[in-house]
Specification:
alpha+beta; five-stranded mixed sheet; three-stranded antiparallel sheet; elongated; binds calcium ion
């Protein structure tokens, strides 16, 4: 875990539920599927729903022993980008919750929208402050491969003229996945229409 990630946690968890001291939780945990279709996010939380793009994320929250973590609150879940600082999350009270507390098998789902901005190639799942890791010995992060983009292109939690400048430059000179809001591989008027429909949106809980 990088220092940046640790600092991200510190900031984000100020708004989250109490952190478990049991670091084995995320080591034994996993989620499915491994790949989702493109996801458009908006700081206002009115982007694509996970259950509209191939989801929901189905999470199994298990101890490293394999025992289920039963009754973990829905608000103890959190998502971040695959790469540090790629997606803006903090400054909001909650970016996303699970749909329910974990059941008797440690299972729950994440179906809704992710209130955030920025661009990344995937995401990581966190429960009770710990990132879901690969299978034991747990030396890497589990990554859900999903192209994520947002009209909040500079990830400052508001869609404004700063983002318009970035989008216009990308449209003209350097189209790419971060300016492709509908995930069709092109940056065109369809993406501008999405941008326009989210212009002015911000995170209502931003500092
Ligand atoms: Ca912005
Ligand atoms: Ca597009």
């Amino acid at each position: 875990m990088t220092r940046t990630t640790i600092l991200l946690f510190v900031g984000c968890l100020l708004f989250a539920s109490p952190v478990s001291a049991d670091h084995s939780v995320a080591c034994g945990s996993y989620f499915t599927p491994a790949v989702l279709n493109h996801l458009m996010i908006c700081p206002q939380g009115d982007g694509d729903r996970f259950d509209e793009v191939g989801g929901p994320i189905v999470s199994a929250n298990l101890e490293i022993s394999g025992d289920p973590v039963v009754g973990m609150p829905a608000t103890d879940y959190w998502l971040i980008g695959e790469h540090d600082d790629a997606i803006a999350l903090c400054g909001s009270y909650r970016t996303i919750d699970a749909d329910a507390a974990t059941d008797a098998n440690g299972m729950t789902t994440i179906s809704g929208t992710w209130a955030a901005g920025g661009c990344d190639t995937g995401l990581r799942v966190i429960a009770q402050g710990m990132i879901f890791m690969t299978d034991p010995p747990c030396e890497g992060f589990r990554v859900l491969n999903v192209p994520v983009s947002s009209p909040d292109m500079n990830a400052d939690r508001v869609v404004d003229t700063g983002d318009l400048s970035i989008f216009a430059a990308a449209y003209r000179d350097a189209p790419g996945p971060c300016s492709d809001f509908n995930g069709d591989g092109q940056t065109d008027l369809g993406d501008f229409a999405i941008f326009a429909s989210h212009f002015g949106h911000s995170n209502p809980f931003a500092n």
